Structure formats: C-alpha cells, structure tokens
Amino acid sequence: MKSIFTFILLLVMTSTTFAQISKMDRYLMATAKLELRTGPGANFDIIAEIPQGTQVYVISSGYGDWSTVQHKNGNGFVQTQLLAQDSSIAEAERAAKAAEARKNAARMAAEEAIKAAEAAKIAAAEAARKAIANAERQLRLAEAEATAAAAEAAAANQNKTAAERRRLAELAETQKALEEANKRTLSNGKSGRTQIESSTASAGKSANSSTARNRAKAAPSKLTRESKFASWEKKTYRTGDTPKSFNKFKGKFEYKLDNYLKIEVGKNTDVVVKLVKMAENTRDKDETIRIVYINSNQTQYIRNIPEGEYYCVIAYGKNWKETKISGKVKGVFTKNALYERGEDILDYHTVKTEDGINVPSFSLSLDLLPNGSLGYDAGTEADDISDDKFNDF
C-alpha cells in the first residue's frame, strides 16, 4: 500500500516538477551527502545517495524544506538546506550571460554600422549623381556659350570690308550714271547758242554793245540712288515677313528639329536675310530655304531648319522698294544699300553623343554704322554681290 502511495506521489511530484522547470532552472551543489528520496520527507524511501560536492539540477524548491532535483540516478527529493550555489557554474552562467549581452551589443552595433554605411552609400551616390548632373549642365552651358561666341564671331566676320567695297561700287555706279547724264546734257548744248549782252562803263564813254556766241554750259545734274529707283513701289514689311518680290518662294522646315538661327539687327539698318543650303555634290545647286525681312532694333528666330550646311545672303539698308522687270518682281534697298554673301558656314548637322543627340543653333548680330558702312577697312575677300545677284539667290 505504501509503494502505491509512493508511486502516485512521484507522479504528482513529477507533473508538478515539470510545470515548474521553467521557473527553477538552476544548478546547485551538495554540501554533504544527499539522500535522494521518493517524497519530501525523511519517512520516504531512499532512491540513491548523492556524494558531497555533486552538482544537481534543481527542478523545484516549493516543498517546504525539500526540493526536487534531477540526478543521473533519477528524480527525487533532497533537503534544501544541504544545497548550495555552485560558484563555478554561477560564474559560467554569468560569463555566458555577459558574453550573450556583448554578442547582442556587438550585433546591434554592427547593424547600426551597416545602416550608417548604407545611408552613407546612398548619400554618396546622390552626391555623385548631383555632381555629374551639375557637370553635364555646366558642359552644356559652356558648349552653348562657345556656339554663341562662334556665331557672333561668324557674324562679325561677315560684317567686314566687302561692305565698304560694295558701297564704293554703288558710288561708282552712281557716278557713272551721272557722267552719262552730263555727256547727254553737253551733247544737247552743242547745237544751241545763247547770245550774251555785255556793257562796260569807262571814263564817260559809252560802252559799245557787242554780242558773242558762246557755247552754253549746262550745270551737271545730280543722280542719286533714290532718284534711280524713284518709279519703284515702296514696300513696308513686318519683321518675319517674306517680301512679295519672293512671293513664289516656299520655305522648307524640319519640325522634328528644335534648332534655330537667331538674328539680332541694330538700329541703323533693316535687313533681308536668305538662308541658303549648300549643295551636297557638284551636280546639285545651292538652295534657299528661308527668306525673312527684319526691321531695325528687332530680333527674329528662323526655326526648324533641316539638317545640312548653310550660309547667309544678306541685304542691308533702308527704304525697301519693288518693281516688275521682264515679268519678274525685284526688290532692293534704295538707301545705304549693301549686299553680301556670308563666308561662314553654319553646320546644322545633328551630332550623336553618349547623352543623346546634340542639335546645334547659331546667332547673328547685324548692323551698319551711322554713315551706312560696316566699319571695316577694304580687304581682298570677294563676298560682296550686286542687288541683281541677291535677288537671284
């Protein structure tokens, strides 16, 4: 009967013990020889004897003066007062806990370091991206400034000595017309004579009247450019218009290209600009693709220019007039008129780069001095043309 009771008690003890394992997990050392019994009391049977100094695992100490322990010979009860803390185990546990704490701290520090490194990497990548974008923007600005400077240099190169030579040619033409008019006048004067009466008073003597036949000398007539074109019809155009003298002209456009030729005109002249595309081979002819009138002190953009190489043919002056000659309408400036074919080539071919397609654009600045010249000394370049040649482009 006692054995049955002991067995039931051990079952209850074991179930209770396992329920408390999580609360009492620890190792203790026997300070004296321990008697491992089947129940919490000296009246219970001895299961085994545990030598002094042996480490046991305490399952529970909730039985008054007795504790349940785990031993290689089985589980049982021992007197709690005979158990003491095993310093080596406690030290090991403390060391393990300290090591675990250091491990956790190191892991957290490593995670923080990784986060900081990732943040630094992202910040560095963003800074590099911004630096690259800024460098590319500066490069584009520099290229645009270089292009504008080249265009200004091209415009300055166009406005040079040929204009003065053309002006001299115009003066020579006018002088020649004047000389021909004088010759015609003198020729007419040879067939007619004018009687001139002369009287002279001298010392109370009456003067004898005499007649003389003298060849009449006609005063030279002055023929100006304005009078040369007096019968022509004066026309007024807005900036951007195509003069009617080119009314059959149809411009060419390439709307996929966002390029332009910017033309700034000063205060001393109006201009008519023809943008001429150079022939790609000797079999073809140069082709005018745009014609535009620009008033003084105004700016005009010629946009959507097809790819190719171009030059400008320019008429300078004031007082634009037109007339029909042999069924063809012709237009000229009648005041301070100068005509030239530009020497500089405007290359509107697109260029493929790593960043995309570079679409070139150019700028021109055109003006005359107040005296009607371009302000350059005469040179050797033959880029001046006549008004007839200008109209033929």
In a few lines, what is going on in this structure?
With 393 residues, the protein is α+β, with helices and mostly antiparallel strands. Helices cover 34% and strands 31% of the residues.
How would the blueprint of this fold be written?
Elements: H1 2-24, E1 26-30, E2 34-37, E3 46-50, E4 55-63, E5 66-71, E6 74-79, E7 83-85, H2 87-158, H3 161-189, E8 193-198, E9 210-215, H4 225-228, E10 233-234, E11 260-265, E12 270-277, E13 287-294, E14 299-303, E15 309-325, E16 328-341, E17 346-347, E18 351-353, E19 356-358, E20 362-366, H5 387-392
Parallel strand pairs: 11-20
Antiparallel strand pairs: 1-4, 1-7, 2-3, 4-5, 5-6, 8-9, 10-15, 11-14, 12-13, 12-15, 15-16, 15-17, 18-19
Task: Name a few traits of the molecule.
single chain, alpha+beta, 6-stranded antiparallel sheet, 5-stranded antiparallel sheet, 20 strands
User: Whole-number radius of gyration?
Assistant: 57 Å
Uncertain runs are 9-25, 190-221, 377-382
Average pLDDT confidence is: 79
Oligomer: single chain
Helix content: 25-40%
- Helix and strand content put the structural class at alpha+beta
- Report strand %: 25-35%
Shape: rod-shaped
Number of helical stretches of at least 4 residues? 5
Largest sheet: 6 strands, antiparallel
Q: Element order, helices and strands?
A: HEEEEEEEHHEEHEEEEEEEEEEEH
Number of β-strand runs: 20
Please give the domain count.
2
Task: Give the termini distance in whole angstroms.
Answer: 135 Å
